[in-house]
Amino acid sequence: MAKEKIYELMVIFDSQGDEAEIHREFDVVQSLVEKRSTEFIGRADWGLKEFKYPITKRNSGYYVYFLFKAEIDTPVQLAHALKMNEKILRHMIIAGNSRSVEYLNKLHSEPIHKIEHTEPVEPVKEELPIIEKAVEPPVENETIEVSKEEETQDVVEPSTETASEITSESEPSNEPSAEIEETVEIQEEIKEDPEVVREQEQSDENNESDENEDNNRIEEQKEIGGIENDGAEKKSEE
Amino acid sequence: MMERKRNPRNRREPRKHRKCPFCANSHIDIDYKNIDLLKRYVNDRGKIIPRKNTGICAKHQRRLAKEIKRARFLALIPYVVYTYR
Ligand SMILES: [Zn+2]
Q1: What is the CATH number of domain B31-85?
Q2: Where are chain A's structural domains?
Q3: Where are chain B's structural domains?
Q4: A146 C-alpha to center of ligand 1: Å?
């Protein structure tokens, strides 16, 4: 008996054509998954989403998320079957865990669009005791609050480095306005970074290397994707 | 001829020590589906911000980079953002 695992499958469907037909295609893929999996856990429709870059000359597509338990040789077979489907622009199968089950449960208690744009009503209540002070915390703010707390702690702690003390002492005045400042601060740091300033003088070379880096990254991603993507990537290059 | 002077304002300042926000609250899941979270660790050109600037630990930076790459593959965040000057 082969080993059983949780898998996440994200499928991007072509948005061109009859909408009802596309939605029927969702069910076709679901039945495909159900047939091959040992246990079908659930599905979440993300709806129509704009791509951040065109995939096979399309600018948007329907995202559907599937979660299932299957034996370890299933994803390869499933990927092969999904590649045959012309309505599917791209798909990705990755190993899931208990978090992905939690994610799906959360989604089913609230519709997806509400969770994305406003705070989910019930899930937040569950998390409140952990965060303690946050009144309306969308997921974003949590990390920021933490880093703020830590900065104040840093000031209190007696540090041996005098130089760093001075810089950190000047900071608390900036702190009160929250989220935006934090992110701005990060970007400013990058700009002020002496290395970057120096390197800007050789900007021509730099730009070239930047592009190379990005290309490399795309190739890297192909390799990382492994079974998940190679077919789809080729399509997009055409 | 002209020797390039070192601008004192360009000197590297000691980085303040920051703790990793993901180690501090372990209930935050770094996940390709959580796009709002990933976006904050990518700069305006779409590049992953190095961890020396964000204070993330090596373990979580690895995880973050992985999930960002997954999100990129699914066109949820861009590979490159071209800024024209
Ligand atoms: Zn960490």
Answers
A1: 4.10.640.10
A2: 4-118, 171-210
A3: 31-85
A4: 13
DSSP A232: H
- Rounded-to-integer distance, Cα B50 and Cα B48, Å: 6
Q: What is the pLDDT along chain A (238 residues), one digit of tens a residue?
A: 678 999 999 999 999 989 899 999 999 999 999 999 999 999 999 999 999 999 999 999 999 999 999 999 999 999 999 999 999 999 999 999 999 999 988 888 765 444 344 333 333 333 434 434 444 444 444 444 444 444 444 444 443 444 444 444 444 444 444 444 444 444 444 444 444 444 444 444 444 444 444 444 444 444 444 444 444 444 444 4
Task: Find out whether A65 and A94 touch, Cβ atoms under 8 Å.
Answer: no
Beta-carbon contacts below 8 Å between A and B: 110
Query: What topology does CATH give the domain A4-118?
Result: Alpha-Beta Plaits (3.30.70)
Model pTM greater than 0.80? no
Calpha distance A196→A183 (Å, rounded): 18
Q: Give me the residue from A52, A103, A229 closest to B76, CB to CB.
A: A52
Cα–Cα distance measured from residue B21 to residue A144, given in angstroms and rounded to the nearest whole number: 8
